[in-house]
Amino acid sequence: MSETTAPGARFPLPRAHDPDTGLNSLQRYELSGDEHFSLAVQAGPGGDQRPELVLAKALDREEAAFHELLLRAMDGGDPARTGTARIRVTVLDANDNAPVFSQAEYTVRVPEDVPVGSTLVTVTATDADEGLNGQLKYSYQMVSVKASKIFHLDAETGAIALMRNLDFEEGTSYELEVQVRDGGDLSDIAKVVITVTDVNDNAPEISLRSALKEISEDAPSGTVIALLYVQDRDSGANGQVRCSLDGDVPFRLQSSKGNYYSVPELVLEGALDREKQSSFELVLMAVDGGDPARSGTVQVRINVTDANDNPPVFSKRVYEARVAENLPAGSVVLQVVATDADVGSNGRVSYS
Length: 352
Hints:
Layout: E1 10-12, E2 26-32, E3 37-43, E4 49-55, E5 66-75, E6 82-90, E7 100-101, E8 105-111, E9 119-122, E10 125-126, E11 137-142, H1 145-150, E12 151-153, E13 159-162, E14 173-181, E15 187-197, E16 205-211, E17 214-216, E18 224-231, E19 241-245, E20 251-257, E21 262-268, E22 279-288, E23 295-305, E24 313-314, E25 338-339
């Protein structure tokens, strides 16, 4: 009988036969074996006794799938004689149990470089019913379009696997709602939270926001040469960037802190001398705090323009010449020569 059979239901039982007569014939029935069942005896039209099995207490297949009973038929002789029949009641399953997830919420943390095809988490549910009523299927109850393209849910096993590469910079956390349903259309829902952790898969970017192409050699120390743009798409230590300047040069890096953010600056430190070095090829490097660290570089060329910081200098302090007294007017007596280390108009000399 089904476990949903209502208490009070009656089931006819086989009747006993006794060829004796009178008091020596069948007198009564007794039932033993289980509190779920009782015995009722109905009187037939001819006065015969008709035993019936009565369900006294609701059945539950998950508690007991079988019930073993013993029916006795007794006569009134002396000594009394008894006949017995064993009754085995098989309880048929009804879909009276919904599937239940082992957890209301599943959480998992995975690095963004986990290989495609990896199983990230497996949701599991149980159902106390059997057969079709206990067969479970898993499906998404609620999932974003983006997440549905990244995570595959196995309908049979509940395993959630990766279908495409993760990117921490595109998404740090995904929430899925998974539903489990049995063959009788009962269901349960669990929440799955997948948190993506950062790995150092992005090199820092360093570039010039603005920069001077040339600077005068008499520019004061502290003059800003260039403003830099530095970015690393990673987070935490992987996204913390340090900038450095290669070589022994009269420049340094500093941070200009504004109200909301800081901008790395390249500034002049010390004095320039165009006559010693007329240009600089600078290499600026940005290194993040990952392990292993990643880096990026940018090059800056700075031309040093001339300032009139050099006086003209004669080739000699004293020039001497001997001339004949009859030398015609207009003759060249001697030539004085002066040079100027500066260039352009600063280096052009005139004599008087």
